[in-house]
Design goal:
Length: 145
């Protein structure tokens, strides 16, 4: 196939460029200012700024707060020394709270034999001995700290 250039004798005219198609502009000597486009800008609502400041302050406060609350540890020590935790109602309440808290339960369930051994020691007064009470108290304090 052969492609031949278009010439005026064929009756077809070549496609005109867009510049050739646009109307002619007449110069009047007057100048017009360029249209003003609004400048790009971002606005943050005052409430969002306040929220960000409050959040930052809360983060700083949390970072400054120790993981161990010394006031609670000292209160527990004073209660141990005063015998507060030896009261039957306190023991029952503590046991109830521990059984309700899944994190306080042992990772593996206690066997029936182990439970029977604990019950036997309770009946024999094993846990009433001062040195055993001290060990239990120290263990509780270690868990708190």
């Amino acid at each position: 196939m052969k492609i031949e250039p278009i010439d005026s004798s064929s009756g077809l005219s070549p496609i005109q460029s867009p510049a050739a198609q646009s109307p002619k502009r007449v110069k009047t000597g007057r100048t017009f200012p360029a249209p003003q486009m609004p400048a790009d800008r971002a606005e943050v609502a005052a409430a969002s700024q306040t929220d960000a400041r409050v959040l930052q302050g809360a983060k700083l406060l949390l970072e400054a707060t120790p993981d161990i609350r010394q006031d609670k540890v000292e209160l527990a020590r004073q209660r141990l020394q005063a015998g507060f935790y030896n009261q039957p109602e306190v023991l029952a309440q503590t046991a109830e709270k521990m059984s309700a808290d899944p994190e306080a339960r042992p990772a593996t369930p206690l066997s029936l034999e182990h439970i029977a051994g604990i019950k036997k020691r309770i009946a024999e007064g094993f846990y009433d001995r001062p040195e055993i009470k001290d060990q239990i108290a120290q263990s509780l304090l270690d868990d708190i700290e």
